[in-house]
Amino acid sequence: MRDTEWTDAQIRAGGILTIEITSWLGENLLGVIPVVAGSWKVTDTYGVTVPGTVEFSVPALDQWRPVAPDHPLAAVGQRFRVRVGYGDQLVTWGWYRAARPVREGAVIRCTGIGLLRDVERARFTRPLQSKTGQTWRAVLADLLRGILPVDFDAAPADAVQPVTTWEEDRLAAVWEIIESRPARLVIDDSATAVVLPPWNDTAPGPAVAQLVDGAGGTLVELDPDGDTDEDPPNGYVVSTVPDGDVEPITEVWTMPDGPMKWGGPYGYNPAFFASPLNPSDRVKLRAIAERMTRRAVQQTLRFGVVSLPDPRLEVGDVVHVRSARYGVDGLARITNLALTRTATTTNVALL
Questions:
Q1: Which of 45, 92, 144, 201 could form a disulfide with 189 if both were Cys (CB 3.0 to 4.6 A apart)?
Q2: CA distance linking residue 4 with residue 27, whole number of Å
Q3: pTM for the whole structure
């Protein structure tokens, strides 16, 4: 659907953005939910442990009061699938675990949280230890078994990981594995956890969308005062955590150029990441340190963008941003996205 002329024309003409929310319990479709027009909002965010939310209202009619466990709005494992688009060209925007709805006057307010919430809830009832000789893919599959299917088709190369014990937090174990590869974890349109390589911001490729002002543009507003870390690191120290008396292996990567150059006017501000899952390969350790440093530095080059509502945009997309008012013209990556009936609001990091 991306870049279709018909959808582009709908966006620029102020077409009505349609949302379809269905409720599912396991593989059973419970029904289509009657969303109050203009009441909904969906979000996605990079860099948080449980990304993704949906908010919407339904009329406060008796049939939409969840009085049975198989009601579409009951919160006993129900999932909301959200599809958004113009006309009948709808795209799946996300899956969300239903939270308990709340009546607010003439409507029932409903919310859902991204499916990694299921992993967050599934804390270990006793410590979990990985097996000798297990690869990181096998361990990750064990952690997600029975909660989410997992797809490794495009994942980084597999490798044996050290035996590791986690006390309680399953989701922390998942993210520790992902960070130590390094890799990315996303939930796709089929509610599958997909493991992908990290973004390559040194060679991001061409823009997949234009967020520009002027004639025919879709950019409405640019906020240069985005929500950023006030004092992010400009270098990372990444270490292994071996057993016994073995000395850890440590590698460092610092920002070599730009306004946050290590040793430049910004100074020295290292951060540290140690994990028993970090590889003992120094090249791989440096790659992890570089990825973490660049990700932190990008947060200082981030700003907010409000544009016409486009359901095709995704977190991670490389876009061309141009604002004549602020003199911005370049490639950026979307790191945070919120979609409503009237606008797309994003945070983008300049590349």
A1: 92
A2: 32
A3: 0.88
